[in-house]
């Protein structure tokens, strides 16, 4: 007879979400167990071999500032690193690192296996044990029962997963790993609304069969900037691998068009809804028919293999068509496919069933994170996993949850969009989603979030004190530049004319010089004799805060308005039927989503500004009574 087991916290799934959730729980001192269907899927990257990129790099930096693991893990396992959009404004600068996939998994597994209070277990969870709306445990396929005080669902792309290409359709998870079946049925029986989403991945080809001489090389940055604020930049300067740029052509597009009838995507075999922002190649050829070619990024999967990932070429076309379309591309005429491209559809939840702390509204103690919440991407998953892990732990410890709003972090935007808006397709983070993106830069994630990480207990005192020191150094340096005035010497005139900057008529502060568009903190260094030796990240903050001061101040004023709406809370037991003058559609939406504030209510589609003012007035009137 199996003896029941007891843990504080259960994490179901060891993907990017589950790893962060489990480490958070264990590091906060809770006895935590992390389940996975297969140990091979620990922090597995079933798709693109990179971490970060536009807006996703922001999520990784924010997660790192809060005490998460992904940033540290990629700093130890990257094989190429690049700061994207560096020619544009700092709000869209975004780090992206190519990972050695195997090394990434091994490194995360090592961290998990050596974490106190954490147990790893290969077993499929088939059932959640819920009594009168409270989660009390889980059951695995063997019938073993694990009692717990809270659990986090991080099942990714595995629930009722089906992989499809051409006529091939297999009920497996990614890379042929076992899918998870019964848990979907259990969730439905608990009244959880499930959605059917889909995503896809490109073929992998053998790098030794590619003719690189006719392709464009993409090299990494020098020097390399780390993802984690805890990584010393000097420790990660190393030789990097290259990526390569290839292109489809009109012949490739013709092959695809001639076989659209054999595409499960267009024949309707695939039921799940896919991401518009990560379209398959056949989707791109149909939607952008005027384009003569599409960029395909050839990215090494790791140092241990010749396998090459074809970024931008995900597909579910039949195998023979995949071969023909690859062989039609310059440089890939003799390429050998190692793994076919395929689409995967899976069950996930409608995340509007969750509170902003990622707990289910109707099942106390059950949280959800990652692809399971309808998002797509390693970074989106890891960010949610960390927040769900922290909040499940805070609940067990009887502390307040960590809720980041849209002005605090990209993570706040991500979660607010998931739990407030109707997502009809996998949700992918983009800078355009963050209305306060000038404040939410990747370079200041530590200044924005270390304090919150410290409050939860995940960021220790030493790290936090270092942050406070950094903050003070930035303030002192800006103050020094404001107070340091220089006259119109020959050296000054030379430098100003070299940068075609307006000559001086009288003395000026160094800060004023930095504010000039054509100058910067580093450019005026020769004029600044008493300049202290400061770290690169501090210099960057000084420069950005001076150069974008006006925009930053304006955005801060917008945030004040936003915060006022967020502070107008709505009682959890609010009876919307009492508010007579609310429109029917708005009443239905408000009753279904039960927003926590007027701010969140105003972001629900179908709730108009007029409905918001009706609700605000009603609440103010009843609050007074
Ligand atoms: C084919 C494919 C293509 C993709 N393409 C893209 C893309 O183009 N762009 C993009 O941004 N993202 C893409 N992704 C998504 C990306 O992989 C995911 O966003 C990310 O891995 C999600 O992380 P996660 O932690 O939520 O789940 P996953 O990484 O999927 O991990 C889920 C974990 O849960 C475990 N598990 C599941 N059910 C159970 C159970 N019942 N009991 C125990 N353990 C369980 C699994 O073993 C696994 O460890 C793709 C994924 C796949 C599979």
Overview of the molecule:
Helix content is 35%, strand content 17%. The protein contains 20 helices and 24 strands. A hairpin with a 4-residue loop joins β9 (134-140) and β10. The mean pLDDT is 96. Strands 16-17-18-19-15-20 form a 6-stranded antiparallel sheet, with no helix packed on it. It starts with a strand and ends with a helix. With 625 residues, it is an alpha+beta fold. The protein has 4 domains: 5-154 and 354-454, FAD/NAD(P)-binding domain; 201-343, Elongation Factor Tu (Ef-tu), domain 3 (Beta Barrel); 461-552, Arc Repressor Mutant, subunit A (Orthogonal Bundle); 568-624, DNA polymerase, domain 1. Bound molecules: flavin-adenine dinucleotide.
Short structural summary:
This protein has about 625 residues and is α+β, with helices and mostly antiparallel strands. The chain is about 35% helix and about 15% strand. It has 20 helices and 24 strands.
DSSP strand tally: 24
CATH H-level homologous superfamily name of the largest domain = FAD/NAD(P)-binding domain
Structural class: alpha+beta
Largest sheet: 6 strands, antiparallel
Strand order of the largest sheet: 16-17-18-19-15-20
Mean pLDDT, rounded to whole units?
A: 96
């Amino acid at each position: 007879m199996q003896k029941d087991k007891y843990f504080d916290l259960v994490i179901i799934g060891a993907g990017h979400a589950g790893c962060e959730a489990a480490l958070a729980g264990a590091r906060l001192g809770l006895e935590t167990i992390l389940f996975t269907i297969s140990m091979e899927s620990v922090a597995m990257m079933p798709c693109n071999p990179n971490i970060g990129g536009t807006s996703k790099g922001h999520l990784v930096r924010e997660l790192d500032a809060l005490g998460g693991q992904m940033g540290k893990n990629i700093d130890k396992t990257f094989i190429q690193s690049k700061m994207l959009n560096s020619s544009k404004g700092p709000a869209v600068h975004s780090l992206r690192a190519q990972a050695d996939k195997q090394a990434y998994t091994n490194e995360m597994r090592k961290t998990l296996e050596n974490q106190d209070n954490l147990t790893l277990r290969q077993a499929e969870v088939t059932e959640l044990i819920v009594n009168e709306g409270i989660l009390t445990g889980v059951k695995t396929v063997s019938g073993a029962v694990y009692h717990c005080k809270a659990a986090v669902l991080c099942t990714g792309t595995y629930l009722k997963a089906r992989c499809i290409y051409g006529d091939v359709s297999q009920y497996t998870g990614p890379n042929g790993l076992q899918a998870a079946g019964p848990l979907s049925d259990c969730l439905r029986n608990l009244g959880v609304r499930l959605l059917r989403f889909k995503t896809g991945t490109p073929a992998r080809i053998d790098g030794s069969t590619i003719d690189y001489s006719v392709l464009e090389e993409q090299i990494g940055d020098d020097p390399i900037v780390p993802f984690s604020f805890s990584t010393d930049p000097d420790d990660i300067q190393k030789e990097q691998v290259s990526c390569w740029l290839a292109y489809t052509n009109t012949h490739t597009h013709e092959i695809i068009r001639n076989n659209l009838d054999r595409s499960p995507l267009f024949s309707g075999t695939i039921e799940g809804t896919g991401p518009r922002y990560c379209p398959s190649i056949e989707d791109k050829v149909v939607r952008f028919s005027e384009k003569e070619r599409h960029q395909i990024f050839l990215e090494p999967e790791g140092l241990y293999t010749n396998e090459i990932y074809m970024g931008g070429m995900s597909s579910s076309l039949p195998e023979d068509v995949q071969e023909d379309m690859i062989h039609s591309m310059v440089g890939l005429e003799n390429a050998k496919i190692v793994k076919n491209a395929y689409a995967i559809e899976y069950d996930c939840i409608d995340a509007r069933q969750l509170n902003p702390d990622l707990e289910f509204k109707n099942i106390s103690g059950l949280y959800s994170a990652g692809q399971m919440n309808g998002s797509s991407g390693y970074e989106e998953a890891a960010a949610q996993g960390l927040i769900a892990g922290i909040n499940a732990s805070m609940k067990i410890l009887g502390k307040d949850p960590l809720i980041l709003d849209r002005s605090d972090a990209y993570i706040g935007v991500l979660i607010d969009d998931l739990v407030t808006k109707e997502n009809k397709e996998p949700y992918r983070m983009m800078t355009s989603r963050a209305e306060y993106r000038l404040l939410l830069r990747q370079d200041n994630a530590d200044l924005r979030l270390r304090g919150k990480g410290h409050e939860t207990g995940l960021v220790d005192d030493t790290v936090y004190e270092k942050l406070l020191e950094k903050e003070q150094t930035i303030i002192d340096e800006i103050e020094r530049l404001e107070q340091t005035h220089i006259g119109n010497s020959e050296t000054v005139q030379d430098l100003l004319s070299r940068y075609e900057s307006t000559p001086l008529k009288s003395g000026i502060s160094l800060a004023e010089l930095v504010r000039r568009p054509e100058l910067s903190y580093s450019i005026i260094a020769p004029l600044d004799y008493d300049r202290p030796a400061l770290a690169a990240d501090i210099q960057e903050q000084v420069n950005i805060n001076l150069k974008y001061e006006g925009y930053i101040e304006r955005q801060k004023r917008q945030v004040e308005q936003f915060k006022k709406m967020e502070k107008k809370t709505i009682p959890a037991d609010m009876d919307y039927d009492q508010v007579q003058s609310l429109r029917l559609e708005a009443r239905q939406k408000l009753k279904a989503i039960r927003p926590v504030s007027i701010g969140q209510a105003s972001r629900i589609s179908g709730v108009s500004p007029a409905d918001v003012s009706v609700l605000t007035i009603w609440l103010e009137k009843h609050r007074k009574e």
